[in-house]
Amino acid sequence: KARQDRPGGVMLFEDSMSASLRLRQHLGARVHRAIEEQAFFLLYQPQLSLATGRVVGVEALLRWRDGEQVVAPEQFIDVADSAGLMQPLGRWVLDTALAQQRRWREQGWRVRMAVNLSTRQIIEDDSFVDFVRRSLLQHGAAPGELELEVTETMVTEDMASGSGRLRQLRDMGVQIAIDDFGTGYSSLGQLRHLPVNRLKIDRVFIQGLDTDPQDRHIAEMIIRMGHAVWLGVLAEGVETTAQREVLKELHCDEAQGSLYAEPLDADELPALFQRLGVA
Ligand code: C2E
Ligand code: MG
Ligand code: MG
Ligand code: MG
Questions:
Q1: Of 14, 46, 53, 91, whose CB count within 10 A is highest?
Q2: E strands, the chain, where?
Q3: What range(s) does the EAL domain occupy (predicted)?
């Protein structure tokens, strides 16, 4: 039969192509409606100074309430981004996070707000820098109170494309963190020329920090590498006190993870600010 002569992958490929196309169209319509119906919301996870134990920042994490269930970002962000939907959604995230930060500031809690960016938001949106500038003004935030989390590829592509949007944001005083650091290919030589303030060590290296010598060595190397070029280093996904103690020994600056708090609703944060103190 003709079908058996051909590698099975061809049929599968065509099938999955049309399936993902359908999914994309379906999701596209739903994401637009969801923004209108305010089905998206943010959770906030605290980031702490390892030296003082105080809260220095929070990271805004996107959720989608789809009927009864809450959908995690991994299940919709990549699809939404390739469908061009992360530009409106990403603007909504930035605006909502800065509005929340302002409410906390008015209550006397001054914390850095970290917001994740998707690839197309930075690579393809010509007016993104202006949007950030206007949002900061609108919400009365100093540029240094905002941190944008990007991936290694996003920074290097932004620099390679010559658009230098991250450089412009950095020059404005906005902080830039490389998220999931250690999973990409940045070299030490590159790092010192990138418009970046902080490295966030990917949690795969944090998991085995106290049990796997290799993980410990990698984390140690990233911390030294960051410090060598004057970058702050934050460990993500810290779950145990043993991991925290190793990070202190290695002079890591900041930590985030379920040991301190899961991502929380905005109204749960003030009690935590009160209990731990804010830097
Ligand atoms: P990320 O920026 O690296 O965020 C860290 C993820 O690790 C979050 O998952 C967080 O809930 C989870 N996490 C925090 N502490 C722990 C821990 O102790 N143990 C474990 N196992 N996990 C922990 P989440 O919220 O599902 O977000 C997943 C990814 O989705 C984020 O990874 C980020 O890349 C993306 N994302 C989230 N919100 C946004 C957004 O507003 N815009 C964009 N573009 N991407 C977003
Ligand atoms: Mg992040
Ligand atoms: Mg991360
Ligand atoms: Mg991640």
A1: 46
A2: 40-49, 55-66, 69-71, 112-116, 146-150, 175-181, 198-201, 232-235, 254-255
A3: 24-277
Nearest CA to ligand 1 atom 25: 61
For ligand 1, what atom is nearest to the CA of residue 61?
38
Residue 229 has pLDDT above 50, yes or no: yes
pLDDT single digits (tens) 177-188: 999 998 887 777
DSSP one-letter string for 212-239: -HHHHHHHHHHHHHHHHTT-EEEE----
Residue 177 to residue 188: CA distance in whole angstroms: 15
**Residue 227: phi, psi to the nearest 5?**
-65, -35
Structural tokens at position 87: 């530009």
Question: Residue 177, CB half-sphere, CA atoms under 13 Å: how many?
Answer: 29
Position 8 confidence tier, pLDDT thresholds 50, 70, 90: very low
Residue with tokens 């302002």: 102
Q: What is the pLDDT of residues 27-57, one digit of tens each?
A: 667 777 777 778 899 999 999 999 999 999 9
Best residue for ligand 1 mutational test, from 116, 125, 204, 262 (most atoms within 8 Å of Cβ): 116
Q: Contact 255/246 with Cβ under 8 angstroms? A: no
Q: Is 258 in the pocket of ligand 1 (CB under 6 A)?
A: yes
Q: How far apart are CA 230 and CA 142, in angstroms?
A: 22
Helix (H) / strand (E) containing 25: helix 8-36
Q: What token pair was written down for 122?
A: 């930075």
What token pair was written down for 227? Answer: 């410090």
Query: Cα dist. 249→8, 67, 140, 201, 253 in Å?
Result: 53, 46, 38, 16, 11
Contact 234 CB / ligand 1 (< 6 Å) = no
Q: Taking all residues of the chain, what is their mean pLDDT, rounded to a whole number?
A: 89
